[in-house]
Amino acid sequence: QVQLVESGGGLVQAGGSVRLSCAASGGTFSGYRMGWFRQAPGKEREFVAGISSSGITTRYSDSVKGRFTISRDNANKMMYLRMNILKAEGPAVYYCAADARLGGGISVRDLGYAYWGRGTQVTVSS
């Protein structure tokens, strides 16, 4: 079983950048597809970005495509989300998640991910 811990959140001005990190322990990190999700107050959790186990393939939601970059470092069991040109959308909690299923592509559904971190909050102010 893998444990995930996010970090890097905080208060950021609109137009600015921030990098989130996800540290994994336990499990076989290099074998998992990984994803980032976010949830704003009063809204459902939504897919932001995902990455294949090798890191070669990535997938983004339309709302962040071109502004966010997901990456991973399998040797150090880390995943990252670089967020640029942030929009003043208020607070959201960003979660990292691991999909340990064999086969398949990057899932945009949170049900596809068995392991979750506790999240890190990002607030983008105007």
What's the count of strands?
11
Rough outline: globular
Structural class by helix and strand composition: mainly beta
Supply Rg: 14 Å
How far the N terminus sits from the C terminus, by CA atoms, comes to 40 Å
How many helices?
0
The fraction of residues assigned to DSSP E strands is over 45%
The parts where pLDDT drops under 50 for at least 5 residues are none
Quote the average pLDDT.
96
Largest sheet: 7 strands, mixed
Q: Give the helix level as a range of percent.
A: under 10%
Q: What sequence of helices (H) and strands (E) makes up the elements?
A: EEEEEEEEEEE
General description of the model:
31% of the residues are buried. The chain is built from no helices and 11 strands. It is globular. The chain is 0% helix and 50% strand. A hairpin with a 4-residue loop joins strand 7 (68-73) and strand 8. The mean pLDDT is 96. The protein is an all-beta fold.
